[in-house]
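Consider the tokenized backbone below.
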């Protein structure tokens, strides 16, 4: 497909992707499955929503709106761990009209306005807040940290995530390998991992994944490629190519979520909300 779809045109592929994933999936899994189904051109997939502020692709941005509308329509639900799932309503209605979804959701907004209770949906609030802190973080990582500081950040991130013997090497001419470590799984199993970390605003392509794999062959069990940007569809496919050493990919959005989860470089503040109980006053 060579035309950039609107967010409502992504609703049917999104639901189809979740069906193929067994009814639930992470944002990354959904994104990968949608582009597999739709076969968007590289030109479409590489378009960024706001190149000056974020590494989020335009497709990713519009998929987020599609998820929001489908959730308000009752077709999707999501957990605090970022997993989205089809609801019973969606499973019982495999054929639906995106126009009906848009009309219904916008009708809800009009009802709220008519009641003079202009309330932004919790999902939209969360999306706006998330976009704000992720944009700020992207600026810090891509513009304010020097390369060595970014490598030290990834080293700390891996250690906090359970890796041991994490070293930053960054040798010139080493095929882009920036470091190594050992991933421990539940204290019983371990994997030797080589990692590469890139501060990109754009997309990492398949050629860079191939170069990284070529440098790691015979030296580790797995590869880990971390970027502040995104990965092209070809890169995603190359990372999981049959018969080749596996490489796990972490894009800017996932990197931000992991830093937040581990509270590295950020503080999470809970805002107290006070609600007035008018009936209590009236009962005095």
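A designed sequence for it:
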């Amino acid at each position: 497909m060579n035309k950039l779809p609107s967010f409502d045109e992504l609703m049917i592929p999104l639901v189809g992707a979740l069906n193929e994933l067994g009814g639930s999936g992470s944002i990354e899994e959904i994104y990968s499955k949608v582009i597999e189904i739709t076969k968007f051109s590289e030109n479409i997939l590489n378009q960024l929503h706001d190149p000056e502020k974020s590494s989020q692709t335009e497709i990713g941005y519009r998929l987020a709106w599609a998820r929001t509308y489908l959730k308000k329509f009752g077709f999707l639900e999501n957990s605090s761990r970022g997993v989205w799932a089809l609801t019973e309503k969606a499973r019982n209605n495999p054929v639906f009209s995106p126009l009906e979804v848009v009309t219904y959701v916008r009708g809800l907004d009009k009802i709220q306005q008519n009641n003079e209770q202009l309330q932004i949906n919790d999902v939209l609030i969360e999306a706006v807040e998330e976009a704000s802190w992720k944009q700020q973080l992207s600026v810090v990582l891509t513009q304010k940290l020097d390369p060595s500081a970014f490598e030290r950040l990834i080293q700390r991130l891996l250690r906090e995530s359970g890796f041991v013997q994490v070293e930053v090497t960054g040798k010139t001419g080493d095929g882009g390998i920036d470091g190594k470590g050992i991933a421990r799984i539940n204290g019983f199993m371990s994997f030797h991992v080589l990692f590469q970390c890139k501060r990109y605003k754009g997309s990492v392509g398949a050629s860079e994944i191939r170069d990284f794999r070529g440098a790691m062959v015979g030296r580790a069990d797995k590869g880990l490629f971390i970027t502040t940007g995104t990965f092209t569809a070809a890169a995603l496919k190359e990372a999981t190519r049959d018969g080749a050493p596996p490489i796990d990919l972490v894009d800017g959005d996932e990197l931000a979520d992991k830093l937040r989860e581990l509270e590295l470089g950020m503080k999470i503040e809970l805002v107290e909300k006070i609600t007035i109980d008018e009936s209590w006053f009236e009962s005095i």
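The longest strand covers residues 189-198.
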